[in-house]
Design brief:
The chain is an alpha/beta fold. 38% of the residues lie in helices and 15% in strands. It is built from 13 helices and 17 strands. A hairpin with a 2-residue loop joins strand 15 (503-507) and strand 16. Helix 4 runs parallel beside helix 6 and helix 5 (124-149) packs across helix 7 (199-219). The protein is elongated.
């Protein structure tokens, strides 16, 4: 048995292309780019084009119904429980509820409909999204503020009603709550202007607003408990989601130096037809499964069974905006250049509403990747890249770093370990299975050539034919956004829907790596932070089976 070092030394001598495997595909490869280290592969047959781009998420009718039911029932139950003590909701309602719904929301609607940056921002759908977002947030802020202020109420225990307030103390938490509420409103308002903000604004408004909005999301389950707990203990419990929001801010903004990036080894092993059939017989309802990333020794395989690793860095969901400044994305790209991987894969979602001004922000942020030679950087589109005006900015930025944007296209790339076929899929939320099969049929596997797919939405991975034999790189989920992730137990907001949320997955002979992403987005900005799903900086060592 050869050890890894010996194998790598042997494989490093492989500098020539495998002429045998290229012969069968010469007729399918465009020859007008002979000077480039990659060649576009001509599709076999025609690919249908989506006439109307849709950036939405594919959601079943059942899921939509459940979302509506929860949106109505949860606040209703929470308010019924909160009303057990008369009068305690009065102060928060008149400070945070009534002014928000009667004054602030109409102003918000006016700004989006009349003063919005673009027709997309001024559309009824976006206006409704932001108005409903702030309205629901205000609804839960009434409850949150009531439980925070609860120890400062003077209560007539005999009649179980509020008779007054401890005025000498209550003003301090009240001022803090008013400031945080104002930050959330201002952030909702200024997102309509679509402009990158200075650091002072980020620290005074953006960060506090995201922490407090995330607090409202995390506090929802607590409203079913705290009504039955003494007021002081209840206040302390309600500070838990706020503390988690602060942790989420750190996990969202974390950017590691290149010597702190995590190195992950991924070994891709194909199954025989018999093994695949056995797997489907054992688990007929769930062939898609998570695969633990582990050292080669745990695979009981010899290193001779695998090629020299292909080093890959994936930049996923940067979402330039409140939580991803131009300077931060530039730092990530500079670290990428220092690590000098074989391939850099950009898997979409570069934008929030703030990304449009200045227009060259994305171009500046990605500029360090110019230092990499052509044929190392490839990209696909995400759903938010299809918003009005985004594609023009994205194409211009990618052109400056000589990065092909693969939209239902495939290239044959020369790398350190030999040829690699890279196929980029367009984002679709309708007729996904038809689209995936069309692209796979248009670019069939090339004998002896490892295959990489760029697919922003991991939910579509299960639609790739199980014998296609590729490793797919996706993002989109932000690692589940909120949840608990460990080797022993994993539960995230995305994972409970059944979609692959993070790390390595397998379906037949196809593998999927879902990158947690460097940025994140909710609504038009980043109102909901990562909690339990920190931003990922990793170098992937991918071993293809010989």
């Amino acid at each position: 048995m050869k050890n890894r070092k010996e194998k790598q030394q042997q494989m490093s001598l492989m500098k020539e292309w495998d002429e045998t495997s290229s012969t069968a595909t010469t007729a399918n490869i465009m020859t007008d780019q002979s000077n480039q280290p990659y060649k576009y592969i001509e599709p076999k047959g025609n690919l249908s084009k989506e006439t109307e781009k849709s950036i939405g998420h594919p959601v079943s009718k059942f899921t939509k119904i459940m979302m509506i039911v929860l949106a109505i029932s949860l606040p209703t139950i929470s308010f019924v429980l909160a009303s057990r003590v008369k009068g305690r909701l009065t102060l928060p309602f008149y400070i945070f509820g009534l002014p928000s719904w009667l004054i602030l929301v109409p102003i918000l609607i006016y700004f989006y409909r009349k003063k919005g940056f673009s027709p997309f921002i001024r559309s009824k759908g976006i206006t409704a999204l932001m108005a409903v977002s702030f309205s629901f947030y205000s609804l839960y802020n009434i409850l949150f503020s009531m439980y925070i202020l609860r120890p400062f109420f003077v209560v007539d225990e005999e009649n179980n009603i509020v008779t007054g307030y401890k005025s000498s103390i209550i003003w301090l938490p009240l001022i803090i709550l008013i400031y945080l509420h104002s930050c959330v409103y201002i952030q909702h308002l200024v997102l309509s202007k679509c402009r990158m903000r200075p650091k002072l604004y980020l620290y005074l408004v953006s960060y506090p607003s995201s922490v407090f909005f995330t607090t409202m999301v995390l506090s929802i389950p607590f409203y079913l408990i705290v009504p039955f707990i003494p007021s002081l203990i209840g206040m302390v419990i309600m500070l838990i989601p706020f503390a988690l929001g602060l942790i989420g801010l750190y996990q969202t903004l974390i950017t590691r130096p290149p010597n702190k990036w995590q190195v992950k080894e991924i070994y891709l092993k194909t199954s025989s037809n018999e093994e695949m059939e056995n797997e489907q017989l054992i688990t007929p309802k769930k062939s898609l499964k998570r695969v633990k990333i582990q050292p080669l020794s745990d695979h009981n395989e010899q290193i001779v069974d695998f090629k020299q690793p292909l080093s890959i860095i994936q930049i996923a969901d940067p979402h330039l905006g409140p939580m991803m400044s131009c300077e931060r994305l530039t730092e990530i790209c500079e670290s990428t250049v220092k690590l000098n991987p074989d391939l850099v894969l950009l898997t979409g979602d570069f934008f929030t509403s703030e990304s449009f001004n200045p227009e060259n922000t994305l171009e500046i942020a990605l500029s360090p990747l110019k230092k990499l030679p052509p044929g190392k950087v490839f990209a696909c589109v995400g759903n938010h890249d299809l918003e009005e005006g985004c594609m023009e900015i994205l194409e211009r930025a990618l052109k400056t770093i000589q990065c092909p944007l693969l939209i239902d296209q495939s290239v044959l790339v020369e790398t350190r370990i030999g040829k690699i076929q890279i196929t980029g899929f367009d984002y679709r939320n309708k007729a996904r299975q038809q689209h995936i099969h069309e692209v796979c049929n248009a670019y069939p596997p090339i004998q002896g050539v490892p295959r990489i797919a760029l697919l922003h939405d991991p939910g579509s991975f299960k639609l790739i034919p199980t014998d296609y034999g590729c490793i797919t790189f996706s993002g989109h989920t932000h690692g589940g956004q909120i949840g608990i992730r460990s080797d022993l137990f994993s539960l995230t907001m995305v994972g409970i829907t059944g979609m692959p949320d993070y790390s390595l997955w397998r379906n037949g002979n196809n593998y999927l790596y879902v990158h947690t992403g460097q940025g994140c987005r909710s609504m038009l900005g980043t109102m909901v932070l990562r909690v339990g799903a920190p931003a990922e900086d990793s170098l992937l060592q991918v071993y293809f089976e010989s």
